[in-house]
Specification:
This protein is 43% helix and 10% strand. The chain is built from eight helices and six strands; from the N terminus they run βαβααααααββαββ. Strands 2-1-3-4 form a four-stranded mixed β-sheet, sandwiched between helices. A two-stranded antiparallel sheet has the order 5-6. α4 (59-80) packs antiparallel against α5. The longest helix has 22 residues, at 59-80. The chain is globular, with a radius of gyration of 17 Å. The termini are far apart. The model has no long low-confidence stretch (mean pLDDT 91).
Length: 242
């Protein structure tokens, strides 16, 4: 893809990246807005950390699952073009996030179910199910690592996902916006205009609070219309250590 208005770097297992992406899709539906989906890995971003001492117990398995899905995305892009990431990102998010809570069931963490699960996602995206063979192909990691480093070169390293690059190549990039609820269609464009206005100001660098609602997603036990429990996050994640 060329002449994109936005480069959206996503990790498939990040619920906030998913919520932000659905908001961006609301903006796309309301305006002629072109988005290029790009890859960023939480597992690679945090590779210098000891997961056992820095994160809740489930984080390492989740981030590893995200890396495996990004391998499939990298293979799909190489074989079917950058446009293939648009339906694939949407299909992955629907399958992972708009489902019963992860604590009850997550096929990505079950070796016997992972491949059929991803084959179904690929079929939903209109892509060959055979691309699921890339899940455990570590040769894809070099491309994902390079794209992760490219994203971090735009923002600095103390960030999470998503990373958005507005009006590339010369525009600003930032971590977020992090949202825990979807806006209404009427709110979506107004909210986006405010975000872009901030991003365009060259002196703007941060607007933050660490208290977050649990994301309004079935995968995290929060039904549409409910308000999730407020949690205190540090440095973009629920780390056990700062």
């Amino acid at each position: 893809m060329t002449d994109a208005d936005l480069h959206f770097y996503f990790d498939p297992v990040c619920p906030f990246a998913w919520l932000t992406s659905t908001w961006v899709r609301q903006v796309i539906a309301a305006r002629e807005y072109r988005v290029e989906w790009r890859l960023v890995s939480l597992r690679i971003m945090n590779s210098h950390l000891d997961y056992a001492s820095h994160f809740p117990p489930e984080y390492e398995a989740g981030h590893n699952a995200g890396l495996r899905l990004l391998r499939v995305a990298a293979r799909a892009r190489r074989e079917h073009g950058a446009a293939a990431l648009d339906p694939l990102q949407a299909a992955i998010g629907q399958a992972l996030m708009e489902r019963r809570p992860w604590a009850e069931d997550l096929p990505m963490l079950d070796p016997a179910r992972e491949v059929p699960f991803v084959e179904g996602i690929l079929a939903d995206a209109g892509l060959p199910p055979q691309l699921a063979v890339a899940l455990h192909d570590e040769s894809e990691d070099a491309e994902i690592r390079a794209e992760t480093e490219a994203a971090l070169s735009l923002t600095g390293r103390d960030v999470g996902t998503p990373i958005l690059h507005v009006e590339p190549p010369g525009g600003s990039a930032f971590f977020g916006p992090v949202i825990s609820r979807r806006p209404s269609d009427a709110e979506a464009v107004e909210l986006w205009d405010h975000v872009v206005a901030l991003a365009r100001f060259p002196g703007f660098s941060e607007f933050k609070r660490s208290l977050r609602e649990r994301p309004q997603l079935r995968a995290f036990g929060v039904e549409p219309g409910e308000v999730g429990q407020v949690e205190d996050w540090h440095a973009g994640s629920r780390r056990l250590k700062r």
